[in-house]
Task: structure prediction
Amino acid sequence: MSEDAGKTGGRRLPRAAREAQILQVAAEMFAAQGFHATSMDDVAAACGVTKPMIYSYFGSKPGLMAALLQRTGRELLAGLALMAAIPDPEARIRATLDLLIGRLYEQTASWRVILSAMRGDGPLAEQARGYRAALIHAMLITLAELAPPDLHRAIARRRVSPYAHALLGAAEAGSEWWLSTPGVSRAETEATATKVLDAMLVPIRRDLAASV
Result:
């Protein structure tokens, strides 16, 4: 594996490790002061590398942001793939909720950036919203599996579609609240999210049963 010319603690870093460091620093800086207010000079100085090195890795500041979104989205999709292996749909929904809360606590800066990107315009916003669409699709499939076995799956998916969007909307709104409210414990977040999910599962099951 090739090594770059930058140093951390007096030692060279392999390129993959240096890219990961740059992405993490960029996430923290974009989250703290905004994408437009953060320069490549700022990121380079914080990483202890040269600006040309960052350009050689990512091409441009939008390229750096795209790589950050790709990393966050790739991790999300990998998590969803693991959730898909859970056979019970309700257990899968709850595991997905735990996954999202975990990401919020463990990768706060990256999630702040991706939520901000979804509110914008252009290719980066489309990229961020693509991961949102993947999450809605996974939720749609899972919610439809709560239907009675004699309800056609296409009908079930149509019935749960607004609920899939509502659940994700609640998750996004909850994330925005959490990001603006420091000091909320993970246990409190999990308890509140579980109450919201429990409340929403009631009408979902009722509507699916009434559709038979």
Remarks:
- The two ends are 58 Å apart (CA to CA).
- The longest strand covers residues 3-8.
- DSSP finds nine helices and two strands in the chain.
